[in-house]
Design goal:
The protein is mainly α. It is 79% helix and 0% strand. The protein has one domain. The longest helix has 34 residues.
Length: 145
């Protein structure tokens, strides 16, 4: 999937999504109440862009790099998507929670905070795993099995 859907079109689909994220970051980034969501969203967006370029460059030298990075890379991109959605939900929840007593919006806001504090940090390890390359996987000899 990584090779066909992302690298296969030179990242055009990902660039389109990245543009949506960047527009949201730009629009909401000036609002102090959104900083706890926007700053990590912007950060993971930049990291995904850089990681995509790194793996794409490695893949030109060795096609095994794509397969070796695929799972942790796609998990990282999944976090970018979740971060974008949770930041959008936080924006709505902040608007609605302050003007109503609705527990639903307070719960949305608490869940967004949980996601950004407890789940998004997993990307530090998924990025490291994606960057580890093909060598640790390709060193296994057939005889080992």
């Amino acid at each position: 999937m990584f090779g066909r859907k992302i690298l296969g079109d030179m990242g055009e689909k990902l660039k389109h999504f990245g543009k949506l994220v960047a527009e949201f970051v730009e629009a909401e980034g000036v609002k102090p109440e959104m900083q706890e969501f926007i700053n990590p969203l912007a950060d993971i967006g930049e990291k995904v862009q850089k990681l995509t370029m790194e793996i794409g460059m490695k893949a030109m030298q060795n096609p095994d790099e794509v397969g070796a990075a695929a799972v942790p890379y796609l998990r990282t991109v999944g976090h970018l998507v979740f971060s974008y959605f949770w930041a959008q939900m936080a924006r709505v929840a902040l608007d609605r929670a302050s003007s109503s007593d609705d527990a639903f919006y307070r719960a949305k806001l608490a869940t967004a905070r949980f996601y950004f504090a407890k789940l998004l940090p997993e990307t530090a390890s998924t990025i490291r795993a994606a960057r580890a390359g093909a060598k640790p996987m390709m060193e296994f000899d057939e005889a080992f099995f």
